[in-house]
Design brief:
Strand content: 25-35%
Distance between the termini: 88 Å
Number of helices: 5
Structural class: alpha+beta
Radius of gyration: 23 Å
């Protein structure tokens, strides 16, 4: 009787362990894959889902939105991805009358560090201002603008907990800003024809910027 009781208890314990393990797997599969359910390219095709997933932690649900607004003063395009864990990746692309120097002058003071890093490819420039904050710039003449807009500028950041940290997060946010810039340039109808690279140089290849430069 005692041997049978011990075996029954052992079997019960084993089944309980398997049930808990199965429950954990089920939770992982069904409740923490919100980002995986987004379109392959969220925000109306602006960015790669894999890039978003590398920035934001897993969550039960995730929602995305990409919106283009045309106006008399140019256009704006906003991309945002928000998870149920209150993690957000967001960027705004806006036409502007800035040139490179005024763009630097506007954004560099927003860096919390003395190591803002700039990377560029052709006419495209991007600044990593902190681990979770970046901006990108490209000359652009928008259609139907009544003001002398001459550039498209992206302001991108994360809010709340992130999956990536430190230098890895810096790179992700810069890549996000660039993908948004490239999409908004075409979606908004900037008049100059351009060939965009698949990606900008890595931040490890960039240069530290301390003062506005032309």
């Amino acid at each position: 009787m005692r041997t049978g009781t011990r075996r029954a208890r052992a079997l019960t314990a084993a089944l309980t362990t398997l049930a808990l393990a199965a429950g954990a797997l089920a939770y992982t599969h069904f409740f923490t894959r919100g980002i995986d359910r987004l379109p392959d390219r969220p925000c109306a095709g602006a960015v790669d889902r894999a890039l978003v997933a590398s920035a934001l932690p897993s969550a039960r649900t995730a929602q995305e939105r990409g919106k283009l607004e045309q106006g008399l003063h140019g256009f704006t395009f906003r991309c945002s991805v928000k998870t149920s864990s209150d993690s957000i990746l967001v960027g705004d692309a806006k036409t502007s009358d800035a040139d490179v120097r005024s763009w630097h002058k506007h954004f560099l003071p927003k860096s919390d560090n003395d190591d803002a890093i700039e990377v560029s490819s052709g006419a495209v420039r991007a600044l990593s201002l902190d681990s979770d904050y970046a901006t990108a710039f490209i000359p652009c003449t928008p259609p139907r603008s009544e003001l002398p807009s001459r550039a498209l500028v992206v302001d991108a950041t994360t809010i709340g907990p992130t999956r990536a940290k430190g230098d890895e997060l810096r790179q992700v946010v810069v890549d996000f800003a660039y993908q948004l810039l490239r999409h908004a340039y075409e979606a908004g109808g900037c008049e100059e024809a351009r060939n965009f690279p698949d990606a900008l140089p890595r931040l490890t290849e960039g240069r530290v910027v301390e003062e506005p430069v032309g």
